[in-house]
Amino acid sequence: MNQPPVLISAERIADRVRELAAEISADYADKGDLVLIGVLKGSFVFLADLARELTIPRTIEFIAVSSYATGSKSSGAVRLIMDVRGNIENRHVLIVEDIVDSGHTLAYLLGILSSHRPASIRTCTLLHKAECAEVEVDIDYVGFPIGDEWVVGYGLDYAERDRTLPYIGIVTPDDRR
Ligand code: PRP
């Protein structure tokens, strides 16, 4: 099977992850421990790379959600599958996403994680489909703005395929079968 065409190369991703890590490390330099919360499954590769580039004390948590979809279109309803394991009360939290599309998932996560009363809560996503936003959410750190494309790789899947591709590729109409 053909490999998906490249949208963002592994080299560009690595450069941008290093830049984001430097920015986040500077922003949290005087704040103590930062809790990175990866949103499963898609963020696992980005989170692993970002976390290892940070120069500040950090701990890792995961949260899992699922969105109810009609075909390829998200309905906007999000369900919690697995909550964070550790206590995040009075701690600085950074939600780490692979992609923000409609914004429903991130809006939902901000709601439930805020109820744990963290000291602060910010958001970071590798990819942002700004033109697809259906709800407004504050995103503090964005790797790459992208258009309304179906993308795979670096953690993102299409029907569970291509998550381990080292770059961000575009799903072509031929692949959507
Ligand atoms: C993707 C992505 C975000 C969400 C963004 O997850 O990882 O969590 O969709 O979409 P939204 O902004 O429209 O809410 P997905 O449901 O594909 O699950 P996965 O990460 O397990 O692949």
CATH top level is: Alpha Beta
Number of helical elements: 3
Proportion of strand residues: 25-35%
CATH architecture: 3-Layer(aba) Sandwich
Multimer state: single chain
Global shape: globular
Helix content: 10-25%
- Tell me the major beta sheet: 6 strands, mixed
Number of strands: 9
Give the integer mean of the pLDDT values: 94
Alpha carbon gap, first and last residue: 13 Å
- Could you name the ranges where pLDDT drops below 50 across 5 or more consecutive residues? none
Bound molecules: 1-O-pyrophosphono-5-O-phosphono-alpha-D-ribofuranose
Please describe the topology of this protein.
Elements: E1 6-8, H1 10-27, E2 34-40, H2 44-53, E3 58-70, E4 73-82, E5 92-100, H3 104-114, E6 120-128, E7 141-145, E8 151-152, E9 168-170
Parallel strand pairs: 2-3, 2-5, 5-6, 6-7
Antiparallel strand pairs: 1-9, 3-4, 8-9
Helix pairs in contact: 1-2
The structure holds 1-O-pyrophosphono-5-O-phosphono-alpha-D-ribofuranose.
Residues 39-42, 67, 74, 97-105, 157 line the site of 1-O-pyrophosphono-5-O-phosphono-alpha-D-ribofuranose.
